[in-house]
Design brief:
The chain is mainly α. The chain folds into two domains: about 30 residues; about 90 residues, no CATH class. The protein is built from five helices and no strands. Helix 2 packs antiparallel against helix 4. The longest helix is centred in the middle third of the chain and has 36 residues. It is elongated, with a radius of gyration of 34 Å. One of its GO terms (cellular component) is respiratory chain complex I. It is found in: Mitochondrion inner membrane. This is NADH dehydrogenase [ubiquinone] 1 beta subcomplex subunit 10.
Length: about 170
């Protein structure tokens, strides 16, 4: 209900219970305890918290994603350069995690579209379905059949074998 009631339009019926009036001069111990608690514990803690919040508001901290520089691919590493191997492996793992998240985001968008559209999902979510098919095919082409323990070297070998098969198929077609 709004705060500014029109008391004339909506009259409140009178209460049947009478308002109790204090008949004793002894102070209420609950009120004394609440006042003491407020001054002894609550006020200092509130003051310190407000002071810390004011300091934190002055020094705003913005979080940004960590940016890694791109390192050479495993095929560009010199033989025996183990540091380059390690960096290429770490770069491959980061790329794989990014690609997994891309597939997951597209899958969530498709699920949201299907939930939203209901029975008309096949015609209204066709664009999302096509995008999911493209993304999963690209992910499968790059990382498929590597298993959990796949690494940059096996991925590179898989791509090399796929390229050799494509060249062989192109030569057979000519």
């Amino acid at each position: 209900m709004p705060e500014d009631h029109d008391w004339e339009a909506y009259k409140v019926p009178p209460t049947r219970t009478p308002v109790s009036e204090r008949t004793t001069s002894v102070p209420n111990p609950v009120n004394s305890f609440q006042t003491a608690f407020s001054y002894v514990l609550d006020a200092p803690i509130t003051f310190v918290r407000d002071w810390i919040e004011r300091l934190q508001n002055k020094n705003k901290f913005y979080y940004y994603h960590q940016k890694f520089r791109r390192v050479p691919d495993l095929s560009e590493c010199v033989e025996g350069d183990y540091l380059c191997y390690y960096e290429a492996e770490a770069q491959w793992r980061r790329d794989r995690m990014v690609d997994q998240e891309i597939v997951e985001i597209v899958r969530e968008r498709l699920a949201a579209c299907k939930q939203r559209e209901g029975p008309n999902q096949f015609q209204n979510c066709a664009k999302e379905m096509e995008l999911l098919a493209q993304v999963t095919k690209a992910y499968q082409d790059r990382y498929g059949d590597l298993g959990y323990h796949g690494n940059a070297r096996t991925c590179l070998m898989k791509q090399k074998h796929r390229m050799m098969e494509e060249r062989k198929a192109a030569q057979e077609n000519q």
